[in-house]
Design goal:
The complex is a heterodimer of chains A (about 40) and B (about 400). Chain A is mainly α and about 40 residues long. Helix content of chain A is about 65%, strand content about 0%. Chain A is built from two helices and no strands. A two-stranded antiparallel sheet of chain B has the order 1-2.
Chain lengths: ~40, ~400
């Protein structure tokens, strides 16, 4: 059962890493679809 | 008799040919070639009409002299331009990046929405409810499949920790993906009336976040499981015997021989691998919008192969707008998802309440020896032979 719980924790961990990782490398919807003339940050 | 049949067939074919030749071209002289009231009514009635008279009537921008001050726009009138925009034939320049930016009008959206809100919901829902109903019925008739023989109290290691980790990584993520997928699909129709728009909006955003990001865990788990179990899931002659007696699931005391995975488990394995891969590919296409179009190419290959024509569907559209690619990806993702969900519901049933001792295989990895003998006798023989060989080696 420990392995099962560890796997469930890994699911959460991978999801969080995927979210921040993809945004960090510029795969967010805004970055990929807005033109260069659009200011996305402050 | 045969002569009468051939004569009848020839008459039918001739009649069909005559009908095809007689297909009248509508007289549009009264409107100067523009669409008539009959065209509009047919379109409103969702009839398929030959719209080439509009689709191809988009003028020729290069035909006139456009260099003069206050000159014409070339050989393209305003209505020509609007028709070109309507049929995605205009040369559009836009600031927006991405392949979908310059498609101002595409008409796949309504077909997609109608299918998504209609047949997809109805048949998908029935499939899941039907599966649960059938399993409930099976449980009432057959009851829990017990270990027939006397328990030994000894256990055999069935799955190592890494195997169980991969299984639960994939299984845990799949359950989350299934629930959030169903929430996204059914929420608008069933949850908004209950919770209201504001509450559902929050739920939908959270659901989308989970669905998008948990998908990676599923794909990692799927890859791990494939490489760990693929060789043991190659079909063999024992599977035929297993299938012939229904795996012994239908009758008490019947235990066909099987290696580590029996035919039923192999069906689950290959369903998960093939359908899971298909869901992953269409899911990636949805995760990275417009970056991974695949349906136009697939349709073109199917057309070349003649498969849709064989089923009387005619040619599938081999030219799709980026938005239509996404619509097909979403529908395919959901259809395959429903099929895999139904299969996994059956898998969860037999791995938990449906069979005594089955959960232990993925719980702590240790299964009762008698259970193993009844369901995987050839595998137990292999394990014992290996154990004996190792002991002999140790003694030497």
């Amino acid at each position: 059962m420990k392995t099962m719980l560890l796997a469930f924790c890994a699911v959460i961990g991978i999801a969080v890493i995927a979210y921040f990782g993809l945004h960090a490398v510029g795969f967010g919807a805004a970055e990929t679809t807005a033109s260069t003339a659009v200011r996305l940050s402050d | 008799m045969i002569r009468a049949f051939i004569v009848g067939l020839v008459i039918c074919l001739l009649a069909l040919g005559a009908r095809a030749q007689d297909d009248p071209v509508p007289d549009r002289s009264a409107t100067g070639g523009a669409q008539t009231l009959a065209d509009i009514l047919a379109r409103q009635d969702a009839q398929k009409i030959d719209d080439r008279f509009r689709r191809d009537n988009i003028g020729d921008p290069a035909a006139g002299d456009t260099t003069q001050v206050l000159g014409t726009r070339g050989g393209q009138s305003d209505p020509d331009l609007w028709r070109a925009l309507r049929y995605d034939e205009a040369d559009v320049t836009t600031q927006s990046r991405g392949p979908a930016g310059d498609v101002l009008i595409q008409d796949g959206g309504m077909r997609w929405l109608t299918f998504r809100q209609g047949p997809l919901l109805i048949y998908g829902g029935y499939l899941l409810l039907g599966t649960i109903g059938l399993l409930g019925l099976f449980y009432l008739i057959r009851g829990r499949i017990r270990i027939d023989g006397e328990k030994t109290g000894r256990t055999i290691t069935r799955f190592k920790a890494i195997e169980r980790f991969a299984h639960w990584l994939m299984g845990g993520s799949f359950i989350l993906l299934a629930l959030t997928g169903l929430l996204s699909l059914f929420g608008r129709k069933f949850l908004i009336p209950v919770f209201g728009h504001d509450s559902f909006a929050l739920l939908a955003v959270a659901s989308k976040w989970v669905h998008n990001n948990v998908s990676w865990a599923f794909m990692i788990g799927l890859t791990m499981v494939f490489f760990m179990w693929v060789f043991e899931n190659i079909p063999n002659r024992h599977d035929l015997k297993w299938v012939a007696v229904g795996g012994g699931l239908l009758k008490k005391g019947v235990h066909p021989p099987a290696k580590k995975f029996n035919a039923g488990q192999k069906v689950i394995f290959w369903s998960v691998i093939l359908l899971g891969s298909s869901i992953s590919v269409s899911g990636l296409s949805l995760l990275f919008p417009f970056e991974l179009p695949m349906f136009a190419k697939t349709f073109a290959h199917l057309n070349d192969f003649g498969l849709p024509q064989f089923f009387g569907l005619g040619d599938l559209p081999a030219v799709l707008t980026p938005q239509e690619e996404m619509q097909y990806a979403q529908l395919w993702h959901a259809i395959v998802g429903f099929i895999l969900m139904a299969i996994i519901i059956a898998h969860i049933y037999i791995g938990s309440v449906g069979m005594e001792g089955a959960f232990d295989a993925m719980g702590n990895g240790e299964v009762e020896e008698q259970w193993a003998r009844e369901h995987h006798s050839l595998w137990v023989d292999e394990v014992e032979a290996k154990r004996a060989k190792a002991q002999t080696k140790a003694v030497e």
